[in-house]
Design goal:
Elements (H helix, E strand, L loop, with lengths): L6 H5 L3 E4 L4 E5 L5 H13 L8 E6 L2 H13 L2 E6 L5 H9 L3 E4 L6 H18 L4 E2 L12 H11 L5 E6 L4 H12 L4 E8 L36 E5 L1 H15 L5 H16 L4 E6 L26 E3 L9 E5 L13 H12 L7
Parallel strand pairs: 2-10, 3-4, 3-6, 4-5, 7-8, 7-10, 8-9, 11-12
Antiparallel strand pairs: 1-2, 9-12
Length: 358
């Protein structure tokens, strides 16, 4: 076993856990360490940031901690504009690591929370021109770190058809991993998981009162979501994500968050419908943030064996609590498309990203 020079080297390595004959979980403590480390390294190498500079971004928690760890490793300042969903444990870690934190006031509206954060970041940039905005939602530099994860997945799961199943937040993990694997010649099917109420794949017309699931879905368009990469989409409500997370702990002793629970439930169903090949579930983080909302209420979780999605052919048939649709590389829905000026910014970033625009 290696002796690591920094904790990030240990944290970024996933544990591959077989959940059934064909379903494997890639379980992370903090998966976005890959995105943050890869992005910071690329930005330093290309001179877009310099040692000692302060990096700023908005986050619901996982990326915030990953960015603070990357800044700690590379001697950079870190300022986080935190979602209302960031808990006291995460905030304490950020502050001890040296990050400064501005947290948004309590809100049960994901859209309001996200819009407040972006407005606050823009104010900070106007007041402190030396800050570098990481733009985790839009800058494709965040996809680069997942090339290393792709190498590990290829070694752990050699040969044959592979289906990646993961929750879609910024789009960096599912998109970055899938592009890297396909670039290595691997046949990969990509299954995305969404909450109801997210614009990313067209469910913004619904509202799930309990669905503030950190790191999954969005109320605003994200430039890093590459809709054309996805083959199938699942939309699940809070209770179904809860059922998946509780089942994962009960059956496999894996303590993971709600986005992992939702992906686990979707992968179980996919593997039963399409046997053959391997299903790789992305487990982005642990379940600590959901102790009270989910695991302390485990007796309320539905039995996952009784749950089935509604199969739909078009977004106008979408309905809670669980729907599945063959996406087949469709373009972004209208509400998920960036305004023209932001699209131009993303395109410029893509053109300077490693490997070119797309």
């Amino acid at each position: 076993m290696p002796v690591h020079e920094h904790i990030t080297d240990a944290l970024k390595a996933p544990a591959f856990v077989r959940l059934s004959g064909s379903v494997v979980l890639a379980r992370f403590e903090t998966m976005k360490v890959y995105a943050a480390l890869g992005a910071v390294r690329e930005l330093l190498d290309r001179g877009r940031i310099v040692p000692g500079q302060t990096l700023v971004d908005s986050s619901s928690g996982i990326y915030a901690l990953a960015l603070a760890l990357a800044c700690h490793r590379y001697g950079l300042g870190c300022h986080i504009v935190a979602s209302t969903a960031v808990d006291t444990v995460t905030r304490a870690q950020l502050e001890v690591l040296g990050a400064t934190v501005d947290q948004m006031p309590p809100s049960d509206s994901l859209r309001l929370d996200q819009e407040r954060r972006v407005r606050h970041v823009r104010r900070l940039l106007a007041e402190r021109p030396g800050l570098h905005w990481m733009r985790q939602y839009h800058d494709p530099v965040h996809l680069s770190g997942y090339r290393e994860f792709a190498e590990l997945a290829e070694k752990a799961l050699p040969g044959g058809e592979l289906t990646v199943v993961g929750a879609v937040g910024t789009g960096a993990s599912t998109g970055g991993l899938t592009r890297a694997l396909r670039g290595r010649g691997r046949a990969v099917r990509l299954v995305g998981v969404q909450p109801f109420g997210s614009v990313t794949f067209g469910s913004e017309g619904f509202r799930d009162p309990d669905a503030l699931i950190a790191g999954i879905g969005s109320s605003v368009p994200f430039g890093n979501v590459r809709h054309e990469l996805y083959d199938t989409l699942h939309w699940l409500d809070f209770r179904h994500a809860m059922a998946g997370a509780v089942s994962l702990l009960r059956a496999h002793a894996v303590f993971a968050g709600l986005s992992t629970g939702a992906a686990h439930l979707a992968a179980r169903w996919e593997a039963a419908q399409h046997p053959g090949g391997t299903y790789l579930v992305l487990g982005a983080d642990t379940g600590h943030r959901y102790t009270e909302r989910v695991f302390a209420r485990h007796t309320e979780a539905p039995d996952p064996h009784t749950l089935r999605p509604a199969r739909i052919e078009a977004l106008d048939a979408l309905r809670p609590p669980w729907s599945v649709m063959r996406w087949q590389g469709r373009p972004a829905p209208e509400a998920a498309r960036l305004p023209a000026h932001e699209t131009a910014q993303v395109t410029r970033a893509q053109e300077t990203a490693p490997g070119g625009a797309r």
